Amino acid sequence: MHISRTSIDAHNETLYATHKRRFEYIASDIAHVEDIISRLIAFNVAIPSWALGTGGTRFGRFPGPGEPGSLEEKMEDVGLLHALNRSSGAISLHIPWDIPEDYTGIRAKAAELGLVFDAVNSNTFQDQKHQALSYKFGSLQHVDRAVRKQAIEHNIDVIRHGEALGSKALTVWLSDGSCFPGQLNFRRAFQHTLESLEEIYAALPGNWKMFVEYKAFEPNFYSMTVGDWGQSLLYTTKLGPKAYTLVDLGHHLPNANIEQIVALLLMERKLAGFHFNDSKYGDDDLTVGSIRPYQLFLIFNELVEGMDHWGMDHASSLGWMIDASHNVKDPLEDLLQSVEAIMIAYAQALLVDRKKLEEAQSANDVASAQEILQDAFRTDVRSIVAEARLRIGGALEPLHLFRKLEVRSALTNERGRFSVATGL
Ligand code: PSV
Ligand code: MN
Q1: What sections of 128-287 are H helices per DSSP?
Q2: Is the pTM of this model over 0.90?
Q3: Is the CB of 215 under 6 A from ligand 1?
Q4: Closest C-alpha residue for ligand 1 atom 6
C-alpha cells in the first residue's frame, strides 16, 4: 500500500478553504506563529515497532486484520503514517522481536520511506526459545553471574544491530525486581545491575547514548530494580556522560508530578527523552493525550522552558518516542492520534508567554501564572499543526484520509486477515 501525492493533494483541496479560515483566524493573534510552524515542521516522533500490531493484556489479545508480519511490513506501516502526517519519520526497534536479516535491504527501504532508526531496545524481560538461561529471577541484577553475562551480551548484540542500521541509542528497560519481601538483597541487586550496565556502557560506540528507563511496578510487584527516576538517575550518573534517564509517562505511581521530574532531569542534563502514552491507573499504554492532555501540555511546557534554558535543539536533543499499545483500536489510527496529541501539546507549550510567566512567578502572582498556562492550553492550535503538516506535504486531516483511502482494508487484502505482528 502506498499513499500517493495525488490522493493527499485531493484530500487537502477539499478541506483547504475551511482550514485557511481557521488558520488565519488563530494566526492573526500569534505574533510568532511562523516560528511555531517551523519548529513543528522540524519535530518528529518515533514509532515503536511493537505498537503496529494490536497490544494484548494478560487476559488476552484480539488481533486486528492486516497486521504487519515482518520488519519490512512494520516499516511500511510507519511509512504510511509518515506520508499522512510528515511527523513520524523514525522507527524504534525491539530486539529480538525485530531482528533485521538483510541490513542493506532494510536501510534502503528506510531511505525510500523517509525513515531513520531511533533508539534500539533490548529485551531481557522474556525468555526466548532456545535461550540457555532464564530471566525468571531477573537479568542484569541476577544472583548468577552467568545469567547476567547472557543479558549483557544480548544488550551488546542489540547495539551491534542498531549500529548496522544507523541508530544512535540503546534503551534498556529492565523488568528486574522482586515480588515478595525478602526475595532480594536490594544493595546487591543494585550493584549487580550497575556492574552489568557498566559493561554494556563500555561497548557503546563513541557517538551513542544509553537510555535507562524506569518503571514503578509490573511485572514485579514488590520492588523494581530501576523503579523510579531517582534510581535511574543514580545509575546514569554513576555510568557517565553517555547515560541518560528515559521517562515513560505510564511508569509512575498514581498522581506523580511528571512535569517536575522532567524539569529536574533537564536541569541535570540527564533527560534522555520520552516514551509517550497516557493512562488513568498505571501503565495503561493508552493513546497519548486521551486521558490527561493538561499533564502532557505541562510536561511540554517544562521541556520548552528547560531546553531553551540550555540552548538545546528541540527536535534533535532528546529522544521522542511513543510507547503505547492496547487492545481496542486500529494501531495505525491510534498512532496518528498519538502523534497529533504530541504536536498539539508542543505547539501549546510554544505559545506560553515565558516573560510574563517569569514576572508572575517573581511577583508570587499565582493567579496570573495559572492564567498564562491555561490560556496557552485552551488555545485551539489544531489548525497551526495542520498548517505545518500541509507545508511539508502531509494531509490536513490524517485520520480522516486514512479512513477515506481504506488503508486497513488494503493492508488486509495484501497481508490477509490473520497476519500477526511480533511483540507482546
Ligand atoms: C515496559 O513497560 C516498556 O515501557 C518498555 O519500554 C518496553 O521496552 C516496552 O514497554 C515494551 O514492552
Ligand atoms: Mn516504555
Answers
A1: 145-165, 186-202, 229-239, 258-267
A2: yes
A3: yes
A4: 173
